[in-house]
Specification:
By secondary structure, the chain is an alpha/beta fold. Helix content is 32%, strand content 19%. It contains 8 helices and 8 strands; from the N terminus they run βαβαβαβαββαβαβαα. An 8-stranded parallel sheet has the order 1-8-7-6-5-4-3-2. The two termini are 26 Å apart. 46% of the residues are buried. The chain binds ribulose-5-phosphate and cobalt (II) ion. Ribulose-5-phosphate binds next to strand 2, strand 3, strand 8 and helix 7. It holds the Pfam family Ribul_P_3_epim. Pathway: Carbohydrate degradation. One of its GO terms (cellular component) is cytoplasm. This is Ribulose-phosphate 3-epimerase.
Length: 226
Amino acid sequence: MTFDRSIKIAPSILAADFANFGAEVQAVEAQGADWIHIDVMDGHFVPNLTFGPPMVKALRRHVSTVMDVHLMISPVDAYIDAYADAGADVLTAHVEAGPHIHRTLQAIRGAGMKAGVALNPGTPASAVAHVLDLCDLVCVMTVNPGFGGQSFIDMSDKIAELRRMIGDREVHIEIDGGVDTKTAGTVVQAGADVLVAGSAVFRGGSVEDPAPYGENIRNIRAAAEG
Ligand SMILES: O=C(CO)[C@H](O)[C@H](O)COP(=O)(O)O
Ligand SMILES: [Co+2]
């Protein structure tokens, strides 16, 4: 996985058909998705439950691009090797998920993955100031994590502050939550390059009729680049 600053659209499978993930990820990839975003929730760190390493491992053979795994779990460290074994390319842990984010990020890289750190809307940019050298991605949550389809919370100031803090390091800024054609431009202007979008990508389409996925992705990209 080589670093580049171009806009990347990462559909979140949280908005896909849970009984048909393999075909859904193939469909969005064929329709122009750059990365695939996979939301892991434990019913403890967030008030919702999705799936764990076996599901991610099963998805690996259907995903030919970057598999971007967003862990909304606490604790994290005991599961890092399982996600490496599952084939995650990027593994993101929340800074709020435990007291030792420095150790967690080191362990993620040590297991051979790119390391991401996510910040909830209420967490300031300064919370990651001392771990930026251990990060490949900072994920700015623009909803409170746990559910898809929520309204976007404007974090432009935080995104711009992180962009300044990151400087010339090769660190992506990813935005997660409520990204659509109305909000994509704002976050890119502030400094983001990876846009996660669940409902705004999967809306109106299906595996049988995937063309709307393509139209949605193209519209979000155009809004981001415009
Ligand atoms: O991490 C997440 C929620 O915690 C999801 O990635 C996010 O909500 C994407 O869904 P949508 O685009 O529908 O908001
Ligand atoms: Co997510």
